[in-house]
Amino acid sequence: MSKEKISICEDLADVMPPEYHTLVENATYGNGERGWKDIGSSKELIEQHSLCAGCPEALAFRYVMASIPNPEDTVFVGSTGCTSLVFPHVAIQNIHSLFGNQNAVASGLVRTLRRRFPDKKKDVIVLAGDGATVDIGLDCTMQSFFRQENITTICFDNELYANTGGQESGLMQKGFVAKMAPVGKTFEKVRLPEIAREAGCHYVACLTVSKPNRVEKAIKNAVLVAREVGPTYIQLYTPCILEIGKQSMEGLDEMKDAESIGGRFVMKEYISDEAKKLLDSVEAERKAKKKAAKAAKK
Ligand SMILES: Cc1ncc(C[n+]2csc(CCOP(=O)(O)OP(=O)(O)O)c2C)c(N)n1
Ligand code: SF4
Ligand SMILES: [Mg+2]
After folding, report:
1. Taking burial as the number of CB atoms within 10 A of a residue's CB, which of 2, 149, 177, 210 is the most buried?
2. pTM for the whole thing?
3. Substitution candidate for ligand 2 out of 242, 247, 254 with most atoms within 8 A of CB
4. Which one, of 66, 150, 67, 63, lies nearest residue 103 by Cα?
5. Are residues 54 and 248 in contact, defined by beta-carbon separation less than 8 angstroms?
6. Model pLDDT for residues 34-48, shown as the tens digit of each residue
7. Span 51-271: which CATH code?
8. How far is it, in rounded angstroms, from Cα 221 to Cα 82?
9. For ligand 1, is residue 180 a contact (CB within 6 Å)?
10. Where does residue 200 fall: left (phi above 0), alpha (psi -120 to 50 degrees), or beta otherwise?
């Protein structure tokens, strides 16, 4: 959290856990330059997690944590699934919703926060699996887009229900046979990025988490646009290495291959005119600040 937001009461300092001291003293929160490069040195960017070793969802979670522009004023809304195992480890406000309800919960939350803190920028970000986003929660997901809620929806797309042992999901690719879906998927992967665009999302990106710079930029764009313009959607291909028969070190290669030319997850991005205007002005501001800082050094 930003140093302005949390501090340790002197009388309790000796009984506070060391992790809390580290968080207050060294956290990247409050630092406008924070990003994925801080992952190796910042405890609050998920030092430990309880996912399978090498699970790409863990990498995705770390990049999301490092990329959000305003962590001290952000609330994550999660849903049941492998990702929900990470929530107890994150140093950020979060709510666990009933499976599939996450976008409805986030809608209520963002509206309440805007009323309660009209002078602050509060970001609400949904983080959920493909089963929660596209299957059981599809109605809540779509309705939040239609209503133009100011929330970012991030879908961890591992193309099945991993947490319950491998059932078929709408985002599973055609023909795939999972542990608990022995017949094989009979229809094509649902094109949620395109549906999100048609349903009114102002920023949509679909990519893997093999290139941290790209992920950081996409997350920042999505959160800034959701804050000022309207709903945004990001789909991150984070394969379940257990289900595709890969070792813990092989998830990254799987994602690199999937995002290379001709692969299934070559990066796609859609930006509405309104969102483009906003992102251009943010970029111009960033450049002007950089220039001014350089000039001040001389
Ligand atoms: C209301 C409700 N329905 C069903 C479940 C069972 N359930 C728990 S996790 C899960 C699948 C999650 O799949 P996904 O959203 O793709 O996340 P993943 O585990 O793949 O990351 C299901 C069906 C539940 N916990 N609550
Ligand atoms: S079951 Fe699959 S998605 Fe879940 S933590 Fe393990 S590797 Fe990751
Ligand atoms: Mg899944």
Report:
1. 149
2. 0.95
3. 242
4. 150
5. yes
6. 999 998 888 777 878
7. 3.40.50.970
8. 25
9. no
10. left
Two tokens, residue 76: 């994550």
The answer to whether the CB of 75 falls within 8 A of the CB of 260 is: no
Encoded amino acid at 181, one letter? A
Ligand 1 contact via 210 beta carbon (within 6 Å):
no
The residue type found at 267 is: M
| 83 ligand 1 Cβ < 6 A | yes
Query: For atom 16 of ligand 1, which residue has the closest CA?
Result: 131
3-state secondary structure of 203: strand
Give the number of the atom of ligand 1 that is nearest the alpha carbon of residue 132: 15
pLDDT-based confidence at residue 1 (cuts at 50, 70, 90): very low
The mean predicted confidence, pLDDT, of the chain is 94
Mean pLDDT of 146-155: 98
Worst-scoring range by mean pLDDT, 2-16, 186-200, 261-275? 2-16
Count of C-beta atoms within a 10 Å radius of residue 186? 8
Ligand 2: nearest atom to the Cα of 57: 8
> Measured in angstroms, how far is the CA atom of residue 83 from the centroid of ligand 3?
9
Q: Using CA atoms, how far apart are residues 57 and 156, in angstroms rounded to an integer?
A: 7
The backbone region for 165, taken as left when phi is positive above 0, alpha when psi lies in -120 to 50, beta otherwise, is left
Pairing of strands 268-271, 203-208: antiparallel
pLDDT tier for residue 2 given thresholds of 50, 70 and 90:
low
Protein residue whose Cα sits closest to atom 24 of ligand 1 = 99
pLDDT value, residue 5: 65
Rounded-to-integer distance, Cα 104 and Cα 83, Å = 18
Among the bound ligands, name the one nearest to the CA of residue 55: 2
User: Which among 46, 50, 52 is the best mutation to test ligand 2's pocket, defined by most ligand atoms within 8 Å of the CB?
Assistant: 52
